[in-house]
Amino acid sequence: MIILELYVFILAAFTGFMVISRVPPLLHTPLMAATNAISGISLVGSLIMAGAQHSRLATLLGFIAVVCATTNIVGGFLIVDRMLRMFQRADKRAPTQDDRRDEAGRRATDKE
Amino acid sequence: MRTVFIQVAYIGASVLFILGLRSLTRPDKARRGMQQAAIGMVLAIAGTLVNHQILDYKWIGIGMAIGIILGYPLGMWVPMTAMPQRIALALSFSALAATLVGVAEYHTGLRLPEGISHAKAAALGFEVLLGSLTVAGSIVAAGKLQEWLPSKPLTFPGQNLMNGALFAFILGLFVFLVMQPQSQSVFYVMVGLAAVFGILFVMPIGGADMPVVVALLNSYAGLAACATGFAIGNQVLIIAGALDGASGLILSILMSKAMNRSFANVLFGAFGSQTIAAGKKAGDLQVRSISVDDAAIQLAYAQLVIIIPGYGMAVAQAQHQVRELAELVERRGGEVKYAIHPVAGRMPGHMNVLLAEANIPYDKLYDMDEINSEFERTDVVMVIGANDVVNPAARTDKSSPIYGMPILDADKARSVIVLKRSMAAGFAGIENELFYDPRTSMLFGDAKTSLTGLITEMKNV
Fold this sequence. Notes:
By secondary structure, chain A is mainly alpha-helical. In chain A, 76% of the residues lie in helices and 0% in strands. Chain B is α/β, with parallel strands linked by helices.
């Protein structure tokens, strides 16, 4: 069994190296936030520990772990989404308040 | 049937995680991809919740509810400028979850009739060792980034020797635990000492080296999750943990490279702890300071302006003013580009996120290699709160501690305006020749105030 798990680990680590080394520096912070959110996968272990009724201590520790991991998943994916929403190309950028004000100003000048 | 569903859910989650990370290679696809990864997470959770080992859902429900309540503000309300400490804090959360599961698993295993096997002891030991180290280390890192703890490196003589000895001792305990899995006290002492080591390990590391450390802790947190997977025989944990571990490792290697320093040097060198005697002292050199109106005139007539942001911009939270000023330059027909050094700021990609937050389109942000050839034809370079990443001593002065570090060639531009609070040396404690260059003028003061002044003046030019 452990050999099978080592296979999984090694293949996943290779995939990770291949994929992640191509992430541009532009998105390194979102990448960190994303891996952080994904590491909330510890929730899988925490859930079982919190619900398996092994002992009172195990349930308590599992419960705290569930809180931590859920916080990371929710907070992590939300923050990644918030960040990635901000990365816009010049042509696709949503007009900001400033832009609209500028636009209005320019029109006013044109009329003059 | 149930097992099939669980396995399908886990495989689906693993695929979506990998695709999500792959989407981060393309800024325009990234958001969609990460949303899919979030769906993968929901799948993994759903798959776990039907596991027959779970007998009682009460604590699960309460725990997840609290987690959602805590996670929402951490995701939606934390400002982008606080991102480095936010990420360090999140690292400690994920490591804490892994550590607690490891401890609970060990505690439970001891009470089983068959005890704990050597392999399981190894996995659990690895999990709590890395987990506990990461929890303590990332709390210290978050404290330093938030400036609750001094961000200067804290060192004392014999530090590396002591840390080395402590680490060797912890490893010894680990080996002992694998041989004698039932020795409880060894297990708990190891958890405690790993936490102490985590604190001692991050304490001596200074603010500007934080990108490497945060990336490294990221890698450890991933590996701790991975070890959890080995301990409880869960493939999705192994895969997700390995992805995180790989990502953290790649980032920390990239960051060390961008400082031309070895990994070991960053971790054990306590860079900048002593004021470095080498390098030119600037007693007889003159700096030229410039008034806001003169700087505004220079910018107003420039064809190409390159802005180099640094940690100072983040501290002053001046990114919105930067954008406003850049738009004024653009309206007068000039072109504005942003040059981002890989280690500018306190974490990988820090500057990019701040500028994106200020609504600056990402196609104007350039990596060091892309933009260095353009400085020669640049009229004005504006350095905002950056120092060591534009220090020409890295190219010329062999005695300088930053010699060999790749830098942005700001000194090749026709003129340079440096926004800086005072003449204090940069993080590395080295004088920056660029500031004494005849083509350089200094605009002293808080970056936000200076930029606001420049904006007002630009409107009047």
